Amino acid sequence: MSPYLAEYLGTLLLLLLGDGVVANVVLAKTKGHNSGWIVIAAGWGLAVAIAVYCTGAISGAHLNPAVTVGLAAIGKFEAALVPGYLAAQIAGAFSGAVLVWLMHLPHWRETPDAGAKLAVFSTGPAIRHTPANLVSEILGTAVLVLGVLAILSPANLQPGSGFDTGFGPVLVGLLVGSIGLSLGGPTGYAINPARDLGPRLAHALLPIPGKGGSDWGYAWIPVVGPLLGGVLGACVFRAFWPAA
Asked: What tens digit of pLDDT does each residue of 154-177 get?
């Protein structure tokens, strides 16, 4: 399998499980309806861990343009591969969102709230405040990229020991769950441009009854914020852990 295909399939799986848990919580008449934020945060953390297990040995399991760009910014990823990775990630996220839509076909009509339908696909702010929303996404993603680099550094998970591949994805999943619980409240923590943009495109294109608009006025924040945050987190790691 090529790294690009791995990034596509890994991001598809990530969104199938991640948007799937949101659908289970917010759509009417599902078994998990109204089960709350902790379920969403836990579901996303597990989704990341599983997707990383599936693709880490092939592509490095970036599954996120902010990770790809952040690693490239500090020389830990080949710049020539960045466009292909980003395209695969966005396509995979779009495809995963389509599968979530397909799985929940009867529930779209049963859910009267257009905002809940959009929330299955993309993030939105609890309070719309552009500077604060942007800062939230920058900081959340900076913690993500810094945390990933630290967790997988040789000082913590010695390459060749088996722990880097055997236990590393679990720790990355716990990191994402922690970000969701601690930092996700203001904006719903996209922390991944593909995770938001691909499904938002799916929402705009799919025949969802009573779906309303796709909130394109906000859509730049979960793209630009995570990209800036990814570079920030990588640069902080490089500055304070130069030997890692």
From this structure: 877 766 665 666 788 999 999 999
